[in-house]
Amino acid sequence: MRDLALLLIVLALCGMALARPWLGVLGLAVLGFMQPQGYAVGFMRQVPVYLILFAVTALSLAFHTWRARAWAALPWRRLMAWQVWGLLGLWLWFAVSSHFAALPWEAWEKYPQVLKILPPLLLILLLIDTREKLFYLVATLALCILLPALKGGYWAVMSGFQDRVYGPPGSPWYENNAFAVAVSMAIPLLVLCWRQTQDRYARLALLGGIALCYGSVLSSWSRGGMIALAAVTLLLVWHSKRKLLAIPLLLFMAAAFFVQLPEQWFGRMETLAAFQDDASAQSRLAVWRIGLDAALRDPITGAGFNAWPVLTLSTGGSLDWHSAYVEMLAEHGFVGLGLWAALFLGTLTGLGVLAWRHGRGETAWIGDHAAMLQASMVAYAAGGLTLGIAYWALPYHLIVIASLLGWLAAQEPASGYRRGRP
Fold it and tell me: How far apart are CA 121 and CA 226, in angstroms?
């Protein structure tokens, strides 16, 4: 039954992509981030549903462009954004570091897996060209993570937070720590949906979903997830237009959850302050030292993808760098880390400027999008401190969405509002 349901979902998404290619982009987000194919148990487990939908969307785009004779109208300005050049430069550097890798065969095997992040981003740049389409894409990303988080949050409340919550099977965030960061990234996007939705019942449903997302993160028992959640909560309060209402609401929700949390949960969180006595934290520090040493030995290109088997022999062969920053530094050197950091910091800065310039007036929707995208990326940056998530597709989607937001903002007249001025 699951496989039949998945087949019907894929066929429906393909039909939508054939009718409207931009809907195929939303379908790719569903298959990529909600991962319904992970629940298949029969014949659909071996079907490359994502690749099929991508091919259908690309062919539909080509057909509609040919039929409309719109080849000259391709969005070259969007394709020439600095974020696009930054992504291409980073992926080219990945190829260089793979060539000089400590384990070249492992690096070149991993490279196509990381490279496949780029083609869907190209479709987004080609097909998402209006405010409405951009909002639908952001909402789809948020809902794809919300749905499994609802189940996890409900189970957490019903079980008294005794069990850990996990993500969809087969997804990049199946593991509890990764799922906590993914849900933390989705919370600002859900807040954006709440701000942009006028329907009363939809707003109430979104508020309930956001509350269950908080419960889902808490019940992940993830210390890295708590860091990401704390960071995103601070930014939500900072960007709130009603801080006097937002702060008491958050405090009330925190109190409602914390009274249900078991003592073991608090004991685990206390190790954040006493990391020197925690074996898990000490093992992470040991792996980080190994990654830094590897980068110092080869500061230009690093050790390449999947070099941890030979670099971490002294610690028993760790399977993860336990930090996106160390992962990027150890595998691609200081150049790779610099390109990656510049891409993210530049995007965060640009979003901050947009949020400042469009805080009020008719273009306040731009400020709302910018503020919540920034909060989502900060959640990723905070979660990446203790998780090897440098190659997640979601943050790169947010970078491209931020690029499109900047392009749309350039089409709008400035509101004339500056925060702190009348």
Answer: 29
Residue 6: give the domain boundaries: 1-70
The length of the chain in residues reads 422
Over residues 169-198, the pLDDT tens digits come to: 878 888 888 999 999 999 999 999 999 998
Look at residue 46 and tell me if it is in a domain: yes
Return d(Cα 1, Cα 338) in angstroms, integer: 48
CA 69/CA 62 separation, integer angstroms: 10
Cβ count near 421 (within 10 Å)? 6
Judge contact between 123 and 372, C-beta under 8 A. no
Asked if residue 43 is part of any domain, the answer here is yes
Looking at the chain, the number of H-run helices and the number of E-run strands are 18, 0
Bigger pLDDT: 384 or 171? 384
Supply angle C-alpha 387, 86, 20, rounded to 5.
90
Q: Which of 67, 64, 45 minimizes the C-alpha distance to 56?
A: 64
Is the Cβ–Cβ distance between 390 and 340 less than 8 Å? Answer: yes
CB 3 within 8 A of CB 43: yes
What separation in angstroms does the CA of 205 have from each of 179, 202, 211? 22, 5, 10
Question: Is 138 in contact with 196 (CB distance < 8 Å)?
Answer: no
Q: To which residue do tokens 């190790």 refer?
A: 271
For residue 203, pLDDT over 80 is answered with: yes
Cβ atoms within 10 Å of 13's Cβ, excluding its own: 22
What would the two tokens of residue 307 be? Answer: 């070099």
Element (H, E) at 232: helix 223-239
* Mean pLDDT value across the chain: 85
| Count of structural domains within the chain | 1
295 contacts 334 by C-beta, under 8 angstroms: yes
> What confidence tier does 345 reach under pLDDT thresholds 50, 70, 90?
very high
Other C-beta atoms closer than 10 Å to the C-beta of 63 total 12
Radius of gyration of the chain (CA): 22
Element (DSSP H or E) covering residue 118: helix 118-127
Cβ atoms 401, 124 nearer than 8 A: yes
